[in-house]
Batch of 2 targets.
Target 1
Amino acid sequence: MNISLKDHLKVGCYLNQRLGVCVVGAGERGTQHAHAWSKIGSVDLISVADVNPLRARRLAKDLKFKFWSTDFESAILREGVNVVSICTPAFYHPEIAIFAASHGKHILCEKPIALTIEDAERMIHTARTNKVKLCIGFQRRYSRYFEVLADLISDGEIGRPVMYRLESAVEIRPKKAMHDMKRGNAGPIVDGCCHFFDLWRLIFHSEPKEVIAKGFVFARDREELQDIEELAPDTAAIIVEFVSGDLGVITISWGLPPGVRGRSGSDVLGPEGVILLEKESMTIIKEGGNVRRVGPFVEDALLNEVQDFIDCVLTGREPKATGEDGLVALKVSLAALESMFSGKPVKVTT
């Protein structure tokens, strides 16, 4: 491919351009974001915000951010900030993202995008109106592992249609906000399953059509969660049908007693075989004892995501996981909750 002098100059300009980052939320996920940003030489660590001053100050000190604050507005408005990583409970995502976008800042927002369709649409609209990028933290889109899986499915390695099965059963989450339906992350159906609702779109090359779900609140009587006004369902079985005819199936629980875990794992079944999904590799098993191993894949998906987002900001292209992608995943989550409460299948409109 021939590259013009103009393109050479443009690339050189991008390589020399620095971006300033603000991280909002200095908990576990915010710390992971901050460490990812710190590994990129062209990024200046400007500010950290967290309602807990000890956490904000500690993260700023550990990674040498220039400023820290207990309010996100002042942190975002610090001179030099171009990009904001939002790592708070999902309830707060819309307020922070809309403020950041309104002030011309590009946004890398952790999933789920929001708790309501209306809030997600406002985030998308504000980012578009202010011509800033809005990326949602679906890390699996930045993983070579899942790119290869998508190719295997598309190439008909195990035939079509396929069924992707995931099971995960863990104890009550240590962060209580994960269980808060209204002012937190709305439980595993919204906060955890959204990763797979998005991933299935990628590997099936199709859109969700209908959802059916059943579930419970296992942890309803746990003393440590009694101050939460409305507990989210923490245990569910969910089937998502796609336009392609493929199925995504999840059984998940965040409601087991402390120290107790169930079986976790995933695979993809097809009429011609199965793909076992292991931590860093895959095993394809087909008729006649035909077994093939793919991988291993050793990668840092969050670092890949951050690097890709920098490229989006500098070149103007869209992120791999847009606000619209976040909205579709949220619609599937809310359809699953509606199905659970109504006892009926729910159509998904994308």
Note: The radius of gyration is 21 Å.
Target 2
Amino acid sequence: MEVMDEVRVLLRDADPDGELPPCHLRSLVLGRDALEQVPELLDVLLRETGADADGRVVLLVDPTLIVREGADVKLRAEQLLAERFDTVKAVLDDGHDELHVVDEVVAAAAEAARGAAAVVALGGGTVSDIGKLAVAACEPPPVLVTLQTAASVDGYTDDVSVLLRDGVKRTVPSRWPDAVVADAQTIAEAPVGMTCAGFGEMTSMLTAPADWYLASLVGASGFHDGPIRLLDRVGDGLAQWSVGVGSGDPAAVERLTHALAVRGIVTGVAGTTAALSGVEHLVSHMLDLHHAEHDLRMGLHGAQVGVGAVVAAACWELLADRMADETPTLTADALDEDAAHQHVLAAFGHLDERIVAECWSDYAAKLRRLDRERVEAVLGDWPRHVKRLGELVRPSAEIAERLAAAGATASFAALDPAVGPGLARWAVANCALMRNRFTVVDLLMLLGWWGEAEVDEVFERVARVTS
């Protein structure tokens, strides 16, 4: 089933004046036997783009075995492609149990892709991100088809990739795939934990838009209602169909796959990942930073985001209570770089110095974009913004309930690998210090409302709604 026709209608309705960046995804195919359609789709794309229809096709994969109805998916894809094209399989392996998106792996993928007519990136979000970066590095760029095998993240259908550099995950520009093919049967057979992680990823739409809007108020980001209107459509019926995710119900998994695909497009046309990436993603990145630095297995990104979404909502609730009880006033050193640098050193000084430098570089850039008078003006006019912010973030109890109904993780202790109280507290307390993105935690810090007592309160709120 071709989904892009529907998406183009949604985009026109959400952005009638054409103010948003264009979507360059040509085709989005979702269906039970979508795998079998890849050669025909690729043939059409090669002819439409004027590429060499008889040129080399590189099948980009990692070493992980993926099975569909008892058969090797990668072998089947290679057979299908080889029937029509000169096909070469490139297996990416960085020597770890799980492949990481690092410069060395991207360079190897780009070398394999260089001179090819097309690249088919088959796998999960990691292979998808590598494929986008590798093709973006080629001149001329090959046609890129992403063959999605799990509904674990939403990054298949956008124009950015998450790169692990100097121990810190960063979202960097890459490129739109020309097509994404989501084989519903393969995705339904993926480990249920990956699918539940995909639902965890979904919950960022219940918190991150509020951070995005807040950032626009203080001058740290732009904002457009169009992506939010698209997200409203993505959320239609979510409470009903999500209950089948945890049991692997094929219809529910297909709905999740469709929703994640549209979410990815939202990120692309918003021109920033901030539309769907706020505190909840920062918490996940903090956990990844810790695990990578200590050579530990990383958890599933979406599962961590789901837990982080409950935290993010609790932070917004804390802010609302403080705003109701006290007059918001910026601290004397709210935008002082020397004081901020000490905070960053205290948070990350026990880690590699490259991590400290990377985090400080991003956090300092965030501080320099802020103007004290503008932030104070926002605070002085806060009642005018409360209603809109309230529309963009859901209560922590509701998010926890939706995660539980979908069989997804809602607490740090239930993550795999499990996250203990000390690591969880470190990740939450310091999440604002690692990235150039303004969120509710940044505002709490500027107001002096993010000390030990406030962090305790957030964890108490989370415990109440997840126990």
Note: The domain at 202-222+272-466 is CATH 1.20.1090 (Dehydroquinate synthase-like, alpha domain).
